[in-house]
Amino acid sequence: MKKILITGITGYIGGTIAKKLLEKNYSVTGLVRNETDVKKLEQSGIESIIGSIHDETVLKAAVSNADAVIHTADSADDAYAADSFIRLLEGSGKTFIFTSGSAIFGGKENGEKNDFVFTEDIPLNPRLEMASRVLINQYVLQSAEKNIRSIVIVPTMVYGTGLGLKKDSIQLPALINYSKEKGFGVYFGKGENIWSNLHIEDLADMYILALEKAKPGSLYYAENGSSSIRNLAENISRQYNLLPPQSVSIQEAVNTFGPAGGYFGFASNSLCSSDKAKIELGWTPRYDSIEKFI
Fold first, then answer.
1. SS3 for 35-47, per residue?
2. Strand runs labelled E in the chain
3. Which of 197, 201, 217 is nearest to 291 (CA)?
4. Cβ atoms within 10 Å of 30's Cβ, excluding its own
5. How much is the pLDDT for 104?
6. What is the DSSP secondary-structure string of 6-63?
7. Contacts of 286 (CB under 8 A, 6+ apart)
8. Least packed by Cβ within 10 Å: which of 126, 239, 291, 292?
9. CA distances (Å), origin 218, targets 104, 175, 204
10. Angstrom distances, CA of residue 1 to CA of 27, 66, 68, 94, 209
11. Which residues contact 39 (CB under 8 A, 6 or more apart)?
């Protein structure tokens, strides 16, 4: 029975991957921060190690007992954690799956449409704000040369109910809650900017297929559909019986969600294709409508 270590196992993505791995008879261990989470996870058949991704003594013991590491713990911008895992895994031949984020495709488009679709073979020239994230991805992929089976997965806007302790994603619930506060479906600027999206269970399936099939140094973009932010706002207005959707300024988005959330999370474009995962991994997503979920 293969032993899988998951960071961020109490989170939305990590918890859902863990549930699906257990269903496939993998042994799952989670790195957690406190005793309360240990008891909750034990009830699901998940072992726990208490510690931080920045405690290398804890990490060393955890990694040595695992056949593979799936890193989902708010990790896309954390170069320290990525480097720690790579140094600990070097020469082991073990699998390391790293979670990035698709804001790397975004420009500062402020609600304007850009329908360019990224594929994994297109070199990225990210804005300054996302440059470090792209460098971290490259560093992880290059670790394949150090006898690590390194894989990077780039999720887009994820929706659906999580199977672990955390049920909700970040982006869409934030937009729904903000729209409820305002009394109308909210978009920013023209709201014509488009985000690729996918369901949490389809995303978790991709991780498991990557674990089982991917070659070292593989990069996969994860999507199964797309929607403009304005379209999401229209659906939110309709489903939650709010006033018709209205535009809110980019500055208000930044004030509410911070610069990263305002400029990139809700006002940029983030479009990509997942054809590579479908071809190489045999990934067949089942859900294709974020509107139905809303």
1. HHHHHHHHCCCCE
2. 3-7, 27-32, 47-50, 68-71, 95-99, 149-155, 157-159, 184-188, 194-199, 218-222, 226-228, 243-248
3. 197
4. 28
5. 95
6. EETTTSHHHHHHHHHHHHTT-EEEEEESSHHHHHHHHTTT-EEEE--TT-HHHHHHHH
7. 199, 201, 202
8. 292
9. 17, 32, 17
10. 6, 11, 12, 15, 16
11. none
The three-state secondary structure class of 117 is coil
Global confidence as pTM: 0.96
DSSP label of 224: S
pLDDT value of position 113: 97
Strands (DSSP E) found in 216-269: 218-222, 226-228, 243-248
DSSP state of 145: G
Token pair for 258: 């911070």
pLDDT of residue 94: 98
CB 49 within 8 A of CB 32: yes
The separation between CA 38 and the C-alpha centre of its own chain, rounded to angstroms, equals: 23
Q: So what's the pLDDT on residue 1?
A: 81
In the chain, the N- to C-terminal Cα span, in Å, equals 38
Angle in degrees, 0-180, between the axes of helices 200-213 and 12-23, rounded to the nearest 10:
60
Splitting the chain (294 residues) into consecutive groups of 10 residues, what average pLDDT does each group show? 95 97 97 90 92 94 97 89 97 98 94 97 94 97 98 97 96 97 98 98 98 98 98 98 98 96 96 98 96 93
